[in-house]
What we know:
Blueprint (H helix, E strand, L loop, with lengths): L1 H14 L1 H12 L7 H6 L7 H20 L1
Amino acid sequence: MYATSVAFEQASRKQDGTAMDSLYVSYQSVDAREYPIISRLKEELFSGEQERFRWGLEVILQGMLQMQK
């Protein structure tokens, strides 16, 4: 499901940048007191496609490995 969602995100960016543009604007204006983590990481959430994909897979795999213990 993770890989599919990333593929969908990338395809939608290429087809029509307006959806991602409006999402980006929304994240830029998030209330820092209500959503401190999103506010602090708002730039990183929209950067590094390949790095972010690898990071996501790593999180999933590490979580699976921890569940085995």
